[in-house]
Amino acid sequence: MSERKAAVLEEFGAELKITSFPEVQPEAGAVVVDVSHAGICGTDTHLQQGKLPIPLPVVLGHEAVGRIRWLGDGVRTDATGAPLREGDLVSWASNIPCGSCFYCAQEDEPSLCETRKVYGINQSCARWPHLSGGWSEQIYLQPGSTIVRLPEGVTPEQVIALGCAGPTVAHAVLGIGKPREGDVVVVQGSGPVGLAAAMYATVAGAAKVIVVGGPANRLEVARAVGIGDVHVDIFAETDAETRLAKVLAETPNGRGADIVIEATGVPAAVAEGIDLTRRGGKYLVVGQYTDHGPTPLNPHLITRKQLQVMGSWAFSPKNHLEHVRSVPELVQRFDLSKLVTRYELGAVNEALADMRSGITLKPVLVSGAVS
């Protein structure tokens, strides 16, 4: 029986180890995929450090693209109804909601499902089928997975460039924030989620998108790719009041943005974001995925400005489909491949360190599954 290599987290705070697991044939309704591109997300750095409760050992990686090796009995089409065949390039939603709980069935918010299965996060590799994360040469997609064939003319690298940030932002920006044509949008944060938010706001018709983030190399990439109209470096503008004045000066009559999207993961950014939002505007918190603790803010401003303050958690399979379907339009406007830095699977710890330091914007582990 053939074996496949995978990057395994065995203990929190430790480096990942490359481990071999046996290939498995798919049961009915399942699919086995040879992984070609697997993204590294900021959340993965938090998972490695034990900041979110996950079972160990685990093959990390909740965003990936690959080529179908085997289809289980009964699998004939992808989530859109298109024919699915062995050899097809596919992407898949990282999570499988239960479909029957209060949040799935009554609220139609499967991203809030408390028992959903998540590849690369809550599926321990100690249990069969073992290969349940994207940082592997192969992954076993369980029955119920949302699998979609890549659109014609779209490359795996273009899809993985936004990894989980794309569907996360499709949920948050298009589904909850809903920018209107002509809006001025401020995005706090210049990581993958922040840049995805800026792109989706542009596609939705925003008149101006102001990106407030850093370090400088990330803003340089944003400029090169055409993401955002104005870029404010928080490491160059270290004084909060000066930074506030600079951003407000870019809004009509200095009144603030119609929508401000927080994508930093830094609690202190929330109070600043409220200051950046105009009266009657929207403040959308997307980046606080890991609990970094409380932060002081003045609730009077929420009342006085009559703000809509909203949060968005992760994404549903529907949002994953929305993102993949939107990639052809995104690549017409933005060179997504410039966001990616490639690493071999064996260099996973180097890629994680580079993600943590901000040296790279989107590290991607690659294999030979796609030439």
Provide the fold topology:
Layout: E1 3-9, E2 17-22, E3 31-39, H1 42-48, E4 58-59, E5 64-71, E6 89-92, E7 95-96, H2 102-106, E8 117-118, E9 138-141, E10 147-149, H3 156-160, H4 165-177, E11 184-188, H5 192-203, E12 208-213, H6 216-225, E13 230-233, H7 240-248, E14 257-262, H8 269-276, E15 277-285, H9 299-305, E16 308-311, H10 317-333, E17 340-344, H11 348-357, E18 362-366
Helix pairs in contact: 4-5, 4-10
Family: Belongs to the zinc-containing alcohol dehydrogenase family.
Keywords: Metal-binding, Oxidoreductase, Zinc
Protein name: Zinc-binding dehydrogenase
Note down, in words, how this protein is organized:
It is a single chain. The protein is an alpha/beta fold and 371 residues long. It is built from eleven helices and 18 strands. The longest helix has 17 residues, at 317-333. The radius of gyration is 20 Å and the shape is globular. The two termini are 24 Å apart. The mean pLDDT is 96.
